[in-house]
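WARN no homologs supplied; continuing
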Amino acid sequence: MHPKTSAPQPAASARYLTAALYQFVDLPDFAELREPLHACCERHGVKGTLLLAREGINGTIAGSEADVHAVLAHLRADPRLAGLPHKESWSDKPPFLRMKVRLKKEIVTLHVPGLDPNQTVGQYVKPQDWNALLADPEVLVVDTRNDYEVAIGSFAGAVNPHIKTFTELPAWLDAQDRLRGEAGKKTKVAMFCTGGIRCEKSTALMKMRGFEEVYHLQGGILKYLEEVPRESSQWQGECFVFDERVSVGHGLAPGPHELCRSCRWPLGVADKASAHYIKGVSCEHCHDLRTPEEKARLAERQRQVELAEARGEVHVGARMPHLE
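OK structure emitted
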């Protein structure tokens, strides 16, 4: 039996099942898996992003319940992915507008030669045991996510490394006095991320560097929010997710955030009250980073989005380049 997390019972209006999945597993023929997988997703009308690499598979897909499960069945038909775990949640709007199956060097990029989570990772900590680890004064708890993710929510007492990309994490770890030298290797370190995949790599990195007691949250924040009751939760705020829902809260219910279409920063109520916020065009974080021509293109894209919504359609336009 493959590990599976069943979604909370969907609301009556929820029509789209989202499945988040990853598995570190040796796939030397990963390039050959792309076309059949993409064809399966297209055949079933499933959208999202799946990454394939020599080290495994990672991604999130969404569609009708039957179609998402058909794609999962296609993946698990490969004996190497028979135990592929996934986490489910529901929404009443399409979480994705496109379907992409990409070939990568890593399913989550860290740029550390020789690092192999298939060989060794930290100790898994179940969501119901995570609070005890947070309360342990001898444990350094690190949020391995990017700055825009941490900005809308994290665990009480967790250290924010203030990184823009996951690839910056090794350098941040190198700069921490508490983790330097042989004495630092005896420090208890616990790490967490959205769904668990970045934790696997970061704790594998710590083990590779000789750290003895390294832990990570099994199933990530999403699993914690699904299983731990709100009244006993140590989570504060919302959890950023990489789809049109933008954020989720306890019980994996869609949150109140909206994505800035210019810089992709998650915007709350206060952010949208800023004088620099123009829906679909700019926000407090990027208003001075786009050229007038780019802002004009974004404004036209937003106009097309609103026209499509008025017709009951979904607009899928060209993407703007990412801001650094």
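The CA atoms of residues 21 and 86 lie 4 Å apart.
OK
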